[in-house]
Specification:
single chain; about 1000 residues; alpha+beta; 30 helices; 23 strands; globular
Length: about 1000
C-alpha cells in the first residue's frame, strides 16, 4: 500500500510556507499555522535515554542517507530542549529505537518501523522495487506463513488498512500498527511481526508472482490526469533531479521483470538495522517495551553490503527562464510562476526556529491578502497562493500560484503579482502582523496546554521527524516559552527580512507553467509577455484595514432552563430551555482545553423535492457570505486569535454546524451560531464562486472510472428521481441565495435546535452560555414533520448490467454490484449487516487481491438509512484492468454466492468481528466519540441504548446469522450491476 501522500516529495514539506496546491485561506493559514508550531516545537518530544547505550551503538556517520543529522547528532549539535519523556537508544547492531509513554487514547499504542529506504534508492531496472518489497512484507516470512500476518492482526482487533498499513515514499518506507490494546501478548505479537519484516522475509517466487498483479493494479488505479499533471510539474520544475523519474509506483516494465531474487537483494541491502528505527508510543511500560525490543531485535544482523550513496540528481540553478503549457480536459486553469534556488539546510536550532516563525508569518500575511482579493464581488481569481518548499536537501522552490476562471488567467495573474510585489517590496502593516500574531498566540497557547493529552499519532509523528529529518522533538510548553520570548521582536520589518531571506525572488525571469483545458491565446509567448508586464506595472497603494468589534453579543434576556436531567445510558446531561432549545452537554478530560460543539436543526436534504431537487445545494456556502454586520473578510479579522468554527451544511435530515473551540471561546462559538441563524449575510460572492467552479467540476465527472460511477449511479438506482440524480450544469447555475432563503429560511428562524457540547469545560458554565445565546432566541418549534413525499425513496426495479462510460485511461474499468436492503430500524439486524459488510470485505479482498491479484483495493459498503423508511443498499466494488473485467465480475459473483451457499468460516467471522469490537472499546476515548453520543441525545435518545449494546450484540452474532442475512439480501438475481468502461471500448454486455 502506498499512502497517496507518499507520492509527493518533500518539495512542499513546508507548505506551511505557503500553499502548494490550493490556495484557500483555510489551507494556506490553517496548515501553515500548524506547521509553524511543529517547526518551532520540533514536532515532538524525544529525549536521551536514562540507560546507557551499549558500545557498538555509535552510528558510523553523523547523518542519515537523506543527509539529515541522525538523532544522536541532532541532539548534540542543537541548543533545543528535547522531551524528557522519550526514552531512546541504539542496539549494538545499529537499530535506533524510541519509546514514548502516552495516555491518549488510554490503553492503546502506535508502533512504527521506519527504514531510510525508498524509491530514490532504486536503480533504473529496479523502479517500483521499494514499494514491491513493502507489499511482500505482508506475504510470508520465516515464522509467519504467506497471508497469515494480516489475519493474525485481524484476530487481535486490528483492521487492515486502518490499523495495519505501510507507505513507501521517495526516501522512506514506514510500517504501521495501531494497537487497540496494550496487553503484553499483543505487544509481543506486534514486535514479532515487525522483526519478521525487518529480517525474515521469504520472497517466495509464487507469492511474488501473485503480488505482481496487485502492484500493477495499484499503479493502474492511480494513473490519472492528476498524477500526470503532478509528475509533469516535477519534471518541469527540476528536470535533472532523480525523483521526477522515481514515482514509487514504478513502471509496468520493471514491475513485470521483478523477481524474487531481485526483490530480496533490494530488501537485504536496505532493510538493515543501521538503516532502521523502531518507535513505540502509547499506554505502555517503557522498561517492558525496551526489554521486548532488545529480545526481538538484538540478533538482527545485516547480511548484505551497505547500499550505495543515494543519488538525488542535479538541479540547475542557472537554467534559463522557461515556459510550459500542460493541457488535459479535466484540469482547471492554473498559472504558476516559480523560481529555484539552493536549499538552505540550516541546522535545527533555536535561532533557525525563530527565523521559521518570522518567515511563516510573512507567507501567511501574503496569502491573507490573496484570500481577501478572492472574496471580492469582482474577484480577479478563484484562489491564489504564495509559498516556498524544499526539493529534498537539494533546492528550494518559491511559487506564486493563481487559479482563475477559464479564459481569465491574465487578470488573475496581474492581481496576484501585484500583491506579491507589494508585500515583498513595501512590506507589511502593523495591523497585518498583529492579526497573524493573534492567531499564533492562540496556537502556541494550545500547544502548551494540550501537551498532556496529545494523541499517540501526534507523538509518533514528532519522533518520526526526529529520526527522519533531525528535528529535535521539543514539547509544546517549551516551544511556547521560546515563542513568547521572541514575540516582542516580531515586527513588520523583521518578518519582511526573514521572508526575503528564504523566498527565491520571482522576477521577470521566473519560470512559468500553465495548465488547463485549453491553451491561452498566444501560447507561451503570451504567458511570458503577461508576466513581464505584471512585474513592471505600477503598484497601487494598499488600503488600510480597519478593525471593528464583533457585533453579535446580545440576543436578549437569557433563556430559562425548564428541564435539567441526565440520560441514564451514558450520563449525558440533557437540558431544555423555555424556547424549546435542547442542550446535551458532557464534560471530559480526554483532550486538554478542547471543546466540540455541534448544532442540529431538522430538515437538511429532506427539504428538497422532485420539483426543487437542488433546494439546499448552496447551504454550505452560507457562512462564506459572512453575517449581516460583517462580511466574511472582516469576520476573519475579528476572529483572529480565537478558536472557533463557522460552518453550516445540509445533512440527510438536518442542517448541521460544528465547531472545535476551547472553554474561553465557547461563548463566541455560540454567538456565531446564533448570529448565523438570526442574521446570515446572504451576500452573493459565494454564489459567484460556486458558479465559477462548476465548469471544473463537470469537466471531471467522467475523468476516471470512479467519478463516472459516482455521477451516473444515482440516477440509475433512483429511476432518475431528480433528488438523487446528477443534474445538468445549467440547473446549478440557476441557483442563488434568494432560492435558498425561501427553502431554509423557516428552519433558520423557527426550526427545533439541538446542541451538543463535549470536552474540557464546566457543564454549568456551558448551560449558562447557551442560555445567553441560542437559549435567548424566540421560541423554536418543538418538532419537525417532513413532507411524506420527501421520505419516499425507492430502488429501481432494473436488474442486471448497466454500462457507464469514462474518459480516463483506456486500460481502466470498474465493476460494482448493488443490492437494495432496508433501513436501520432493527438494531440487531443493523449490527449483523455491519458485520456482514466486514466479512464480505475480507472475503472479496482475499479473492480479488490476494488470490487473483486483479484489484488493489476492492470495496464493500453497507448503508442502512435512519431517514428513509425501508431504504438501504449493500454494494461491492472493484477497479480492474479492462481485459480482466469478465473474470472480476465472475469472481465477485462467486464470492458473494459462497457467502450465501457455504458455511461462513468461524475464523473469517472473528477476523471481521474483532476490529469492530475494538472500535466500540475505544469509541469513548476521544471527544469526537462523545460528540457522536451527545449529538442528538434528546431527539434520538432511543438510539443511545443501541450504541451501548452494540458491542455485546456484535459478539453474539453467529456465522449462521450472517449467512441468513447474505441469503436474504445478496441474491445475485436481485443485484444491479454497474460496469464502467472506457469511452471507446466495446460494450462488455450484449
Amino acid at each position: 500500500m502506498i499512502d497517496r501522500a507518499c507520492y509527493r516529495p518533500r518539495l512542499n514539506r513546508v507548505l506551511a510556507n505557503g500553499l502548494a496546491s490550493g490556495l484557500a485561506k483555510g489551507l494556506a493559514k490553517g496548515l501553515a499555522g500548524t506547521l509553524a508550531i511543529a517547526l518551532l516545537s520540533g514536532c515532538a518530544a524525544p529525549q536521551v535515554s536514562d540507560a546507557p547505550v551499549a558500545a557498538p551503538s555509535e552510528p558510523a556517520a553523523a547523518v542519515n542517507r537523506s543527509g539529515y543529522a541522525l538523532p544522536e547528532a541532532a541532539l548534540a549539535s542543537s541548543d533545543l530542549e528535547p522531551d524528557t519523556a522519550i526514552r531512546w537508544g541504539r542496539l549494538p547492531n545499529g537499530l535506533f529505537w524510541a519509546i514514548r509513554p502516552n495516555g491518549t487514547p488510554k490503553g492503546t499504542a502506535e508502533i512504527r518501523l521506519a527504514f531510510d529506504a525508498g524509491s530514490l534508492d532504486e536503480a533504473d531496472g529496479e523502479r517500483g522495487f521499494a514499494h514491491y518489497v513493502e507489499h511482500m512484507a505482508f506475504n510470508g516470512s520465516t515464522n509467519v506463513a504467506e497471508g497469515e500476518m494480516i489475519r493474525l492482526l485481524e484476530r487481535e482487533g486490528l483492521a487492515f488498512g486502518a490499523d495495519t498499513n505501510a507507505s513507501t515514499g521517495f526516501e522512506h518506507t514506514i510500517y504501521k500498527l495501531g494497537l487497540p490494546r496494550t496487553d503484553p501478548a499483543l505487544i509481543d505479537t506486534s514486535l514479532m511481526l515487525m522483526s519478521e519484516i525487518a529480517g525474515e522475509l521469504n520472497f517466495d517466487p509464487d507469492a511474488v508472482e501473485r503480488e505482481r498483479g496487485v502492484l500493477l493494479a495499484e499503479r493502474r488505479d492511480r494513473d490519472n490526469y492528476q498524477l500526470e499533471d503532478a509528475l509533469e510539474r516535477y519534471r518541469f520544475e527540476t528536470p535533472d533531479a532523480l525523483y521526477v523519474d522515481r514515482w514509487a509506483g514504478g513502471t509496468v516494465e520493471t514491475l513485470n521483470k521483478a523477481d524474487a531474487a531481485g526483490l530480496r537483494t533490494f530488501w537485504a541491502s536496505h532493510y538493515r538495522p543501521d538503516n532502521a528505527a523502531l518507535i513505540v508510543v502509547g499506554d505502555v511500560d517503557p522498561d517492558a517495551i525496551e526489554a521486548a525490543i532488545t529480545a526481538r531485535f538484538a540478533d538482527w544482523q545485516a547480511d548484505a553490503p551497505a547500499p550505495a550513496p543515494r543519488d538525488y540528481g542535479t538541479v540547475d540553478f542557472d537554467r534559463p527562464a522557461s515556459v510550459e503549457i500542460h493541457l488535459h480536459p479535466a484540469l482547471s486553469q492554473r498559472f504558476t510562476a516559480f523560481a529555484v534556488g539552493p536549499a538552505l539546510n540550516a541546522p535545527d536550532t533555536a535561532e533557525e526556529r525563530r527565523a521559521t516563525v518570522l518567515r511563516q508569518i510573512g507567507y501567511d500575511a501574503v496569502n491573507r491578502r490573496l484570500t481577501r482579493l478572492a472574496r471580492r464581488s469582482d474577484a480577479p481569481f478563484k484562489s491564489a497562493g504564495f509559498g516556498t518548499g524544499d526539493v529534498f536537501r537539494k533546492a528550494r522552490v518559491t511559487r506564486l500560484i493563481v487559479d482563475s476562471v477559464d479564459g481569465h488567467w491574465q487578470a488573475g495573474l496581474n492581481a496576484a503579482a501585484a500583491e506579491y510585489r507589494n508585500a515583498l517590496e513595501r512590506g507589511f502593516s502593523d495591523a497585518e502582523i498583529a492579526e497573524q500574531l493573534a492567531d499564533l498566540d492562540e496556537r502556541y497557547e494550545a500547544a502548551a496546554v494540550s501537551e498532556p493529552t496529545r494523541t499517540n499519532d501526534f507523538m509518533v509523528d514528532r519522533i518520526l521527524r526526529w529520526v527522519g529529518e533531525g528535528r529535535i522533538p521539543t514539547t509544546g510548553p517549551e516551544a511556547t516559552e521560546r515563542y513568547l520570548a521572541m514575540r516582542a521582536e516580531i515586527t513588520p520589518d523583521a518578518v519582511l527580512a526573514a521572508l526575503r531571506d528564504e523566498a527565491v525572488p520571482l522576477d521577470e525571469n521566473a519560470h512559468i507553467r500553465f495548465r488547463g483545458r485549453t491553451a491561452p491565446e498566444g501560447g507561451e509567448a503570451a504567458l511570458r509577455r503577461a508576466w513581464t508586464a505584471a512585474m513592471k506595472a505600477p503598484l497601487a497603494q494598499e488600503a488600510a484595514i480597519e478593525a471593528v468589534p464583533f457585533a453579535y453579543t446580545d440576543f436578549g434576556p437569557a433563556g430559562t432552563v425548564v428541564a435539567d436531567t441526565r440520560e441514564p445510558v451514558f450520563n449525558v446531561r440533557t437540558v431544555r430551555f423555555a424556547n424549546n432549545v435542547r442542550l446535551n452537554v458532557k464534560h471530559t478530560d480526554l483532550a486538554r482545553n478542547q471543546v466540540l460543539v455541534r448544532m442540529s436543526i431538522p430538515g437538511g436534504k429532506l427539504l428538497e423535492s422532485r420539483e426543487q431537487p437542488n433546494g439546499v445545494e448552496l447551504t454550505s456556502r452560507l457562512p462564506a457570505s459572512g453575517l449581516g454586520k460583517h462580511d466574511a473578510d472582516t469576520l476573519e479579522t475579528i476572529l483572529a486569535g480565537k478558536r472557533v468554527g463557522f460552518d453550516f451544511g445540509a445533512g440527510s435530515d438536518a442542517f448541521i454546524s460544528t465547531g472545535s473551540t476551547r472553554a474561553e471561546d465557547l461563548e463566541l462559538q455560540l454567538q456565531l451560531m446564533a448570529a448565523l441563524l438570526t442574521d446570515a449575510g446572504w451576500r452573493t460572492e459565494p454564489v459567484t464562486r460556486f458558479r465559477n467552479a462548476l465548469p471544473d467540476y463537470f469537466a471531471r465527472l467522467r475523468a476516471t472510472p470512479a467519478s463516472a460511477l459516482n455521477s451516473g449511479r444515482g440516477g440509475v438506482i433512483s429511476d432518475n428521481d431528480p433528488r438523487f440524480t446528477q443534474q445538468q450544469i445549467d440547473a446549478y447555475r440557476a441557483l442563488d441565495f434568494d432560492q435558498l432563503r425561501d427553502v431554509i429560511g423557516p428552519s433558520l428562524a423557527h426550526g427545533p435546535i439541538e446542541i451538543a457540547i463535549v470536552g474540557d469545560m464546566d457543564e454549568g458554565a456551558a448551560i449558562e452560555l447557551v442560555g445567553k445565546t441560542l437559549g435567548a432566541l424566540p421560541a423554536r418549534d418543538t418538532g419537525f414533520t417532513p413532507d411524506p413525499a420527501a421520505l419516499d425513496r425507492r430502488f429501481t426495479d432494473k436488474r442486471g448490467a448497466v454500462v457507464l462510460r469514462h474518459e480516463g485511461e483506456p486500460t481502466q474499468s470498474l465493476v460494482e454490484m448493488v443490492w437494495p436492503t432496508t433501513d436501520d430500524s432493527d438494531a440487531v439486524q443493523e449490527i449483523r449487516m455491519e458485520l456482514l459488510e466486514r466479512v464480505a470485505r475480507i472475503a472479496i479482498t482475499d479473492e480479488l487481491r490476494e488470490r487473483l491479484g486483479q484489484a488493489y483495493s476492492p470495496a464493500v459498503s453497507n448503508s442502512q438509512s435512519k431517514v428513509w423508511p425501508d431504504w438501504g443498499t449493500f454494494s461491492i466494488r472493484a477497479q480492474v484492468e479492462l481485459a480482466q473485467l469478465p473474470a472480476a465480475r465472475a469472481a465477485l459473483a462467486a464470492t458473494v454466492e459462497a457467502l450465501r451457499s457455504e458455511p461462513i468460516p468461524d475464523d473469517l467471522v472473528e477476523r471481521a468481528r474483532a476490529p469492530l469490537v475494538s472500535a466500540y472499546d475505544n469509541l469513548l476515548k476521544s471527544n469526537s466519540g462523545w460528540l457522536a453520543i451527545a449529538d442528538r441525545a434528546q431527539s434520538e435518545g432511543d438510539r443511545l441504548e443501541r450504541i451501548a449494546l452494540a458491542q455485546q450484540r456484535a459478539k453474539a452474532v453467529t456465522s449462521a446469522e450472517l449467512q441468513e442475512e447474505a441469503r436474504r439480501w445478496l441474491d445475485p438475481a436481485r443485484a444491479l450491476e454497474f460496469l464502467v468502461v472506457p469511452q471507446d471500448a466495446p460494450s462488455p454486455v450484449p
